[in-house]
Specification:
Number of helices: 20
Radius of gyration: 24 Å
C-alpha cells in the first residue's frame, strides 16, 4: 500500500515536471451571461498572448459541484431577475454583514467537501481566477487548505469584478492576491470594504474578443453584411442573452412612435407641412430577443408600421456587428453590454436595471461618461429614440463620448497581470501585442473624430 502511494506521488511529480503549460482555473456561475463571457474573454486573451504556454478551464462550480439548493442558483437567478422587488430583498439580505456571514457559514458547512473535490480533481493548478461575486470566500478557503496540505507556496488567487459601477461586498476578499476593478466607482467600494491599495488594479471590464479592436467599416457596409437596410437610421434593442425585460411591449411602442408622421425634437413638434418629407422617412429597428422565444414569435407576428423595417432575432453570436451597424442602443443596464456599446460609439438608452447591482451602471452612463440617458416609461423611451435618429448632431456628440469611455485593452491588460502571477514577464513572454504597445488613446481619438462620418 505504502509503496503504491509512493509510486503515485513520484509519477505525479514527474508529470508535473514534464508539464509545459501553466494551468488556470476560472470560476464563475451562469447567473446572467456576463460572467461566462468575461471568463471566455480572459481565457482567450491568455491563450493568445501566451500561445502554448497557458491552458485554462472555465468552471461553474456552484452548478456542477454544490448540493441542493446551491446548485439551483442559475434558474433562480433567471426567476428573480424578472422581479425587481424580490431581487432588491435578496441583494440587501446578502449585503448586510450579519446575514452575509450566516449565509457564508451555511454554504461552507454544506459545500466545502464538494468544492474540495472540484479542486482536487484539477490538481495541480497554477492560478485561480474568479469572475463571480460568490466565488471568493469558499473557493479561496479550499485552495489555501490544499496549499498547506501540499506544503507549497500559496496558489495565486485573483478576482476580476465584472460589475461596471456597482459591486456587492461579496466581490471583495482581503486575502486575494489581486482584485481587478473596471471603474473608479468600484475601486472606491473595494477600498471601503478593506482591500489594500496595492491589491486593487484597474484596467476596465473584460470584453469579448470581437470588441478588442475598434470597428473601422462604415455603418452602411455593416448593414449590407447583415442584410439590413443600408440607408435607414437604425436603432438596436437588446434584452440580454436571456431576453430579460419588457422587450416585446417596448419594441411595439418604439415601432409605433417611429411610424408617426410628426417629428419631435425635444418639446418642439415639427408638423408634416413644415417637414413635408418626414412622412416618407424610413427607420430600421433591430430587436434581439436572446433566448426569449415567446417574445420573438410575438414580434415576428406583429404588424409593424409601413415605414419601420423591423428585424427580429433570437440569440446571436455576432452582437458586435449589429452594434457597429446601429445608430443607437436600447438596453437594460447590463455592464457587459454597456462596455461593449462604448467601443462602438453607441448612444445608449437604459430602459431598466436590477436594484442595487445595476444602479451604478445607470450613473456611469448618464452622469459620469454622459453617452446616454435612462428612461423607464416606454413612451418616453420611444420619443427619445426617434429624436436621436433624426438628430445627427446629438448622435455624433453622444457617440464621441461613448468612444472616450471605451477601454479596448482591458481584457489583454488583465490577462498580462494574471500571467505575471504565473511567472511570465509582461512584455518578453507576450507574442501577441494589440495596437503596437497598446496605445488605446490614439485609436479612440481617431474614432472620435470619425464618429460623425460613420453616422452616414
Amino acid at each position: 500500500f505504502f509503496l503504491n502511494c509512493f509510486q503515485q506521488q513520484q509519477t505525479k511529480k514527474i508529470s508535473n515536471l514534464k508539464r509545459k503549460k501553466k494551468r488556470v482555473l476560472i470560476l464563475m456561475s451562469d447567473t446572467g451571461g456576463g460572467h461566462r463571457a468575461s471568463a471566455q474573454a480572459l481565457g482567450h486573451a491568455l491563450e493568445r498572448l501566451y500561445p502554448s504556454k497557458i491552458e485554462y478551464e472555465i468552471l461553474d462550480i456552484w452548478t456542477e459541484y454544490a448540493p441542493w439548493p446551491y446548485k439551483k442558483f442559475v434558474p433562480w437567478y433567471a426567476y428573480v431577475a424578472k422581479r425587481p422587488l424580490m431581487w432588491r430583498a435578496l441583494w440587501s439580505y446578502a449585503r448586510f454583514p450579519l446575514t452575509r456571514r450566516v449565509q457564508e457559514f451555511s454554504a461552507r458547512v454544506q459545500c466545502f467537501d464538494d468544492f474540495e473535490k472540484a479542486f482536487r480533481d484539477r490538481e495541480p493548478l497554477d492560478a485561480v481566477v474568479s469572475v463571480h461575486p460568490l466565488c471568493q470566500t469558499l473557493p479561496l478557503r479550499v485552495v489555501r487548505k490544499l496549499d498547506k496540505e501540499q506544503n507549497r507556496p500559496e496558489t495565486p488567487f485573483v478576482t476580476v469584478v465584472t460589475d461596471l459601477a456597482s459591486a456587492h461586498p461579496t466581490w471583495f476578499h482581503k486575502d486575494v492576491d489581486a482584485c481587478f476593478v473596471p471603474s473608479d466607482a468600484v475601486a472606491k467600494i473595494a477600498k471601503k470594504v478593506g482591500l489594500q491599495d496595492e491589491k486593487i488594479k484597474q484596467h476596465g471590464l473584460p470584453l469579448r474578443h470581437a470588441f478588442w479592436e475598434p470597428e473601422t467599416r462604415p455603418k452602411a457596409q455593416m448593414r449590407k453584411t447583415l442584410s439590413l437596410p443600408e440607408n435607414m437610421e437604425t436603432a438596436l434593442l437588446v434584452g440580454g442573452g436571456d431576453g430579460v425585460g419588457r422587450i416585446s411591449s417596448l419594441a411595439k411602442v418604439i415601432g409605433k412612435e417611429l411610424g408617426k408622421e410628426e417629428a419631435t425634437f425635444g418639446k418642439k413638434k415639427i408638423s408634416k407641412q413644415s417637414e413635408h418629407n418626414n412622412k416618407n422617412q424610413q427607420f430600421s429597428l433591430v430587436i434581439i430577443c436572446g433566448r426569449n422565444e415567446e417574445a420573438q414569435r410575438e414580434l415576428e407576428a406583429y404588424d409593424w408600421p409601413a415605414n419601420v423595417h423591423a428585424t427580429i432575432l433570437g440569440f446571436v453570436k455576432n452582437i458586435d456587428e449589429y452594434m457597429a451597424a446601429a445608430d443607437c442602443l436600447i438596453t437594460k443596464a447590463g455592464p457587459g453590454t454597456i462596455a461593449e456599446a462604448s467601443t462602438r460609439g453607441l448612444p445608449t438608452l437604459i430602459s431598466s436595471y436590477l436594484p442595487g447591482q445595476e444602479f451604478g451602471n445607470v450613473q456611469y452612463v448618464c452622469h459620469e461618461k454622459q453617452f446616454g440617458v435612462f428612461h423607464r416609461r416606454p413612451k418616453r423611451i420611444a420619443k427619445t429614440i426617434r429624436t436621436w435618429l433624426q438628430d445627427n448632431h446629438t448622435r455624433s456628440q453622444l457617440a464621441a463620448k461613448a468612444f472616450s469611455a471605451a477601454q479596448l485593452n482591458a481584457t489583454t491588460n488583465i490577462a498580462k497581470d494574471i500571467a505575471h502571477y504565473l511567472g511570465f514577464d509582461h512584455n518578453a513572454s507576450s507574442t501577441y501585442e494589440f495596437y503596437h504597445n497598446g496605445d488605446q488613446n490614439q485609436h479612440i481619438t481617431q474614432h472620435e473624430s470619425s464618429a460623425t462620418a460613420r453616422l452616414a
